[in-house]
Amino acid sequence: MASLTLSDPVVQSYIVYSAVLALKLLSVSTLTTLTRMAKGIFSNPEDATLFRGKVKYDDGTIERVRRAHLNDLENIPAFWLLGALYLTTGPVAAVATNLFRVYTVFRVIHTIVYAVVPLPQPSRAIAYAVPYLIKWYMGIQVVLYYITAV
Question: N or C: which end of the chain has fewer CB within 10 A?
Answer without folding.
Answer: C
